[in-house]
Amino acid sequence: MRALVYHGPGAKAWEDVPKPAITADTDAIVRVDTTTICGTDLHILKGDVPIVSDGRILGHEAVGTVEEVGGGVRTVKVGDRVLVSCVSVCGSCRYCREGHAGQCLGGGGWIFGYKIDGTQAEYVRVPFADTSTYAMPPGAEDEDILMLADILPTGYEVGVLNGGVRPGDVVAVVGSGPVGLSAITGARLFSPSHIVAIDLADSRLEAAKQFGADITVNNARQNPGEVIASLTGGLGADVAIEAVGVPASFELAVALSRPGGRIANIGVHGEPATLHLEEQWIRNITITTGLVDAYSTPTLLRLVTGHQIDAKRFITHRFALDEFDKAYDVFARAAETRALKVVLSRAP
Ligand SMILES: NC(=O)c1ccc[n+]([C@@H]2O[C@H](COP(=O)([O-])OP(=O)(O)OC[C@H]3O[C@@H](n4cnc5c(N)ncnc54)[C@H](O)[C@@H]3O)[C@@H](O)[C@H]2O)c1
Ligand SMILES: [Zn+2]
Ligand SMILES: [Zn+2]
Description:
alpha/beta; 28% helix
């Protein structure tokens, strides 16, 4: 088969590799019908994630068709169309049993395109198939649910639910990339009074408006603190969601929150950020962090089939499965190409 293989910082190739085989009886082999690229894949290609070794197949999001199942797989059957989540769930460790599979101790968690071969390939081996895949809802197409593999549960769980968004809240979302837009999408389900999207790129702020932000602020030109203060009688945001992953955006999210407010960090950080405890100790704030667990996937699937969430609207560019070079290029130049999510699909 062919797959997108990582060969060290800056190097990747769509090349011939052996087709994956079942190695544990809880595995399934899934034919990848549709996949996408994540900002995290760009981090890996930059060499920011050194645990990823030369020869690793990239990718951690897919919708596909089950080709083969191990003897221990009970509910997933050959021919089923499934969502392959970025988080694998062993189902028996302490964290999985508490709904926190992102921290799985039994060989799951985020493993695709990281610790094991990923989904940017014609076929992928999916461990713990019964607990790590989701059946395609009747009548749905691949593109309707592909964003549930990573960004939608991430924005919803790590941003909206960790931040405890409630009706009437003023919610500040720092960063309007696909993950920030997912947080906006999820926050709207709770009827906040205002969602304020903050980004340095106007193209991303235009997208934020379309995804339901009430107010957009380009923090290169405008002070978001003043905007939030004017909405909240000078108090600050009830919830500030950080969806960038640099010190400035975390520090901004803390600065924007009101006393008693909640700050939900989603961004993957590569360097230390400053928490001004000398100012914050008295302000009763709550800060949360997290890797997505994907426990909300069944809920999000119902919201998609019930038309409360349009997961397809993130898709801005479409490619054939062998066009990874083009797709990565368009995705990496998002400011120029206005890409949100790029999708690659096998020929029908
Ligand atoms: N915690 C998790 O489980 C998890 C899962 C997936 C992704 N992530 C992380 O979420 C973050 C966002 O992902 P994405 O795919 O949306 O990334 P992205 O790079 O597409 O979007 C980030 C946005 O932040 C904006 N930005 C940069 N600096 C800023 C600043 N100082 N102030 C305001 N805006 C700024 C950029 O213009 C861009 O639009 C990344 O760090 C990613 O690794 C975390
Ligand atoms: Zn991802
Ligand atoms: Zn586990």
